[in-house]
Design goal:
Helix content is 28%, strand content 21%. By secondary structure, it is α+β, with helices and mostly antiparallel strands. The protein folds into three domains: 1-65, no CATH class; 66-150, Acetylcholine Binding Protein, Chain: A, CATH 2.70.170; 152-240. The strands form two sheets. It has a four-stranded antiparallel sheet with strand order 2-5-7-6, with no helix packed on it. Strand 6 (118-131) and strand 7 (137-149) form a beta hairpin. Helix 1 (152-170) runs antiparallel to helix 2 (181-202), helix 1 (152-170) packs parallel to helix 3 and helix 2 (181-202) packs antiparallel against helix 3 (212-239). The longest helix has 28 residues, at 212-239. It is elongated and about 100 Å long. The N and C termini lie far apart (116 Å). InterPro entries: Neur_chan_lig-bd, Neur_chan_lig-bd_sf, Neur_channel, Neuro-gated_channel_TM_sf, Neuro_actylchol_rec, Neurotransmitter_ion_chnl_CS. GO terms for molecular function: extracellular ligand-gated monoatomic ion channel activity; transmembrane signaling receptor activity. This is Neurotransmitter-gated ion-channel ligand-binding domain-containing protein. One of its GO terms (cellular component) is membrane.
Length: 247
């Protein structure tokens, strides 16, 4: 649709309801809850006269599945894929072309990016084709979203206190024999168990790899168990009085 802008007071674009336009049957292939776009989010479209193109600015909140590799948690990087594809239109009927190429990330523009657990590092687009059983060729766009976890929360509230407790556990044997070494060792083990619960509550339940942090915590707790065992043996030995000294 085109018109002579000189005949209409130099108007080169108009805004019309999106319900009056044809909308593509685009959906999310790896969507978790709903695979279709909510087209009601974009209610208006702009129609430009220069080339007759229609610009439809549409926003959506998408819920997708993303496998995580937590081997280096909390200093991990993740890559999530968003796959967009037309459901019924082949490549002869609908061609998907990314509007932008290269890096499209600006974390300063994103709302609440400074308090989010994740930081978007990069977003890359890739066009791919596949053929079904009827030899019809379809297209889909794979959007790779590279994420970086913000580790400050886990450093301040987990790693630093956990390391301090480990140092304190090594200093238990510096206490004299009259001190209650066993109770201090048990208190340290219980405190470290609390931090293990914090880490496990933030880790995904479907993880397929064991985090290095989890292995470290397990080894340190095993060390503290040995400290408790040695402290209890020392206390039993101190409380035992040889019979040959009793006259």
């Amino acid at each position: 649709m085109k018109w002579d802008r000189n005949l209409f007071k130099d108007i080169n674009q108009v805004s019309i309801p999106s319900q009056n336009l044809w909308l593509p049957d685009v959906g999310v292939m790896n969507g978790k809850s709903s695979a279709d776009f909510d087209f009601s989010a974009g209610t208006r479209s702009r129609l430009k006269v220069e080339n007759g193109s229609v610009t439809w600015m549409h926003g959506a909140i998408l819920d997708i599945t993303c496998p995580l590799d937590v081997s280096f948690f909390p200093f991990d990087y993740q890559t999530c894929y968003l796959i967009l594809t037309p459901w019924n239109s082949d490549i002869q009927q609908l061609l998907l072309v990314p509007y932008q190429q290269g890096s499209t990330v600006d974390n300063e523009f994103l709302p609440n990016s400074n308090v989010s657990e994740w930081e978007i590092q990069d977003v890359k687009f890739q066009q791919k084709l596949y053929t079904d059983d009827s030899n019809s060729t379809y297209q889909y766009i794979s959007i790779a979203i590279h994420l970086k976890r913000q580790p400050l929360y886990f450093i301040v509230l987990v790693l630093v206190p956990f390391s301090m407790l480990s140092v304190l556990a090594c200093l238990i044997f510096t206490l004299d024999d009259t001190g209650d070494r066993l109770s201090v060792a048990v208190s340290l083990v219980l405190s470290m168990t609390m931090y293990v619960v914090i880490v496990s509550s933030n880790a995904p339940r479907s993880m397929r790899t064991l985090p290095v942090l989890g292995c470290l915590e397990g080894l340190l707790i095993y060390e503290k168990d040995n400290v408790v065992d040695c402290s209890s043996k020392d206390k039993i030995a101190l409380s035992t009085i040889p019979l040959n000294n009793v006259i």
